[in-house]
Amino acid sequence: MTEMTAELPPGRRVRLSLDRDGIIKRIFMGVIALYLVAALALPLYAMLSKSFVTYGFDLARYEFQVSDETGTVWSEPVTAEALNAELGSVPADDLRSSSDGRLTATTFFPDFSFRSPVKYRMRGTTDDAPWLVGLDLKNTTDWQEYDSNTFRRINLRPVKSVGAQNYVEYFSNPTLFSSIQNSLYIAVVSTVLTVVFAFGFAYAINRSCMPFKGAFRMIAMMPILVPSLLPGIALIYLFGNQGMMKSLLMGQSIYGPLGIVIGSVFFTFPHALIIISTALSIADQRQYEAAESLRASKWRTFWTVTIPGARYGLISAAFVTFTLVITDFGLPKVIGGQYNVLAIDIYKQVIGQQNFEMGAVVSVILLIPAVVAFLVDRQVQKKQVSLLSARSVPYQPRPDRRLEALCLAWCGTMAVFIVGIIAICQYAALIRFWPYDLSLSLKNYAFDRMDGGGWAAYWNSIKLALMTAGIGTVVIFTGAYMVEKIDGFKTGRGLFQFLAMLPMAVPGMVLGLAYIFFFNNPANPLHFIYGTMIILVISTVTHFYTVGHLTALTALKQIDAEFEPVASSLRQPFYKLFARVTVPVCLPAILDISIYLFVNAMTTVSAVVFIYSTHTALASIAVLNMDDAGDIAPAAAMGMMIFYTNAGARILHALASRRILNRTQAWRLR
């Protein structure tokens, strides 16, 4: 007997209706997403569009007539193109120009004299044929008549076109193209050295019974507190043309790849160390006991157990270091000499030559390796698996005098290197006049007597750091909360996550140049913030958004998802749960985000070098400007002020955190 099964007719798809909290959460997430679009996506699009814009003089757009000496009889109209073909006055290569280019009209009239009674007529053959009469812009197809004295003040203006000519020109210029090779070489060498040094340091801290671990950890984090320009200044005093240890280089110059690599190892070391140390801190004791029972040598155990267990940390550290080095601007600017890299090319094109279109081209090229490194790192992290299970036994290092002596020597060498660089900068800041008057003085701290912004620049940095820490922490944590705790809305959450992760792959100089193209456009309704402290805050928060976002997500994922349904069942709005539960529980992460933003706002150079004004100059920019002006000792003094400020902020943060957390985190001890 066959059973008859009845099927229900298809009905409407069931959809959950949004409550008031759901709507508010979506609105908040939409507002922060809109901020990321305006502060990141749109500026990057404006920069990419600008890289395809070319300017050149189209001589076919202009026609001239010349009178006789009576000014009554006129010649037949002739285009500037025809005159140039006959005279060869302007080579084809010279017809390419920047947006601010000018070409004197008298170039096409070799017999021109401003004292002549001869008159000239001029018009455009199209609607887009601009020229200047002094400072007055003309653009008309009607004949305009000028006497000789006025005609000498006429300049043709370039016209805009769209194409890949800028990229062709860049890659056909051997000098500019070599910057790509130089940047990749510096980044690869620095990455290899930094990862090796950081791995040895992290291994000593996590896998040995070496003494003074706390002191070594503190020293290793010191480079984070200084701008990347500072190691360059220290290396100049050590190994420069009048350096105290110049002879150790045996004829080699510190100005160039050698100095950039040494300085890059200094300022990227703590970043690599944090990642590798995290990877090495997680290990299963049973794996090492198994290797020992199989009579594997320590060397073999190292390569078959330790390295595979830490491989994802090593890969992430390598990509982070590579990205930091290839996108850094401050260090190559101070000690790079004539060794061009991509970041310096952007600065030269924009600041030196005012060629914003070519600067955009270099920015796009610089963006490629940073994005590739970021994407590869993300793919590698997806393959990472848990190394600890419920049955795992935490690794406990055993005393080993030989290993401890080796680790102590390794960490001691790195500590001397780090402390030595900072100590040299402090020494340089106190010397009256290197190397002729080595007496100590505080005159280098009289910043108001130096070029660069004076003490006002330092206070501007304090203001920027406080605003960035306050506003940025609220924006970042709120955005992370909305994307983590919202129900459904998978597409919107995915788009928000993409926008939140994007800043990690965008170099600071690229972001700064993008801000010029986007916010400096008079047609942009946000144009009013250009040149103010607001745009510096937006730039800094956006530049360092991703790390804070990931920190907040990590903390939020530790909170049980049941809190939201319980609060909803009790008819409590989500903002009460947010204020009374989420924020207190996540307070350690919130405090970490705030100090991270503060420190980076004090040290950042690349993200703000293009968008600061005379009223918003910063301490890190003052270091750069004073170094440019030859005031290296005052530059070192300003760099040390940044260091002491960040160190003081760290100490105050630690003290305040301990007091606040003792009140709010007592539940963790139960």
List keywords for this structure.
670 residues, alpha+beta, MetI-like fold, four-stranded antiparallel beta sheet, 24 helices, 60% helix, 7% strand, AminoethylPonate_ABC_perm-1
Could you characterize what this model shows?
The strands form four sheets. The chain has a four-stranded antiparallel β-sheet. The protein has a four-stranded antiparallel β-sheet with strand order 5-10-7-8, with no helix packed on it. Strands 4-1-11 form a three-stranded antiparallel β-sheet. The longest helix is centred in the N-terminal third of the chain and has 34 residues, at 174-207. 41% of the residues are buried. The N and C termini lie far apart (65 Å). The protein has three domains: 19-44 and 453-668, MetI-like fold, CATH 1.10.3720.10; 55-161, no CATH class; 173-441, Orthogonal Bundle (MetI-like fold). The protein has 24 helices and 13 strands. The protein has helices at residues 20-51, 80-87, 148-151, 165-172, 174-207, 213-220, 229-239, 257-280, 285-293, 298-327, 330-335, 342-352, 356-382, 401-430, 454-485, 490-501, 508-519, 533-543, 545-556, 563-569, 574-585, 587-603, 619-628, 632-664, and strands at 53-56, 62-66, 78-79, 96-97, 103-104, 119-124, 131-133, 136-138, 144-147, 154-156, 159-162, 431-433, 437-440. It is an alpha+beta fold. It is found in: Cell membrane. InterPro entries: AminoethylPonate_ABC_perm-1, MetI-like, MetI-like_sf.
